[in-house]
Amino acid sequence: MRQDRPGDRTGLAGVLREHYPRVLYPAVLALVIANTLNAGADIGAIAAAINLLVPIPAIIFIVPVSLGIIGLQVFGGYRLIEKVFKWLALALLAYIGAALFAKPEIVKVLAGTLIPTIRLDPAYIGILVALLGTTISPYSSSGRPARKWRSRSAWGGATSASARAPRASS
What we know:
The chain is mostly helical and 170 residues long. It is built from 9 helices and no strands. It is extended, with a radius of gyration of 23 Å.
């Protein structure tokens, strides 16, 4: 079988299609459900964050936040979305201010940062699962081959590393 694009047979979807074709559609359906739940959780978190600033129940903000995100994607371009996220990223600096205002004990902070602790209680396991679930997102395993193929095709079929490799003389 001829492969025109390297990304066609790599990644989770490619392996499922080639080796387990009956599992492909349920797996894609599960991926759609997981992405929908992930997006819903993100929208709920945004609404809860707004609720910290405005004393209105978070559930009221879910529809306006969703419409705002959809409007930004439909009517705004990539540059506008990029600018919005750059400004929102500045809010992360508030963590530094909050840490300084809390006046933590530096020895305990360093010990907690450098010495790992693992517990098997339900709260710790729940946080661990949430951390892994948001870090290893459902679509990260299926999108990589397509991006890899696009980057290779943009360079005429060669990656920058292979383009720099010395050629053997004949």
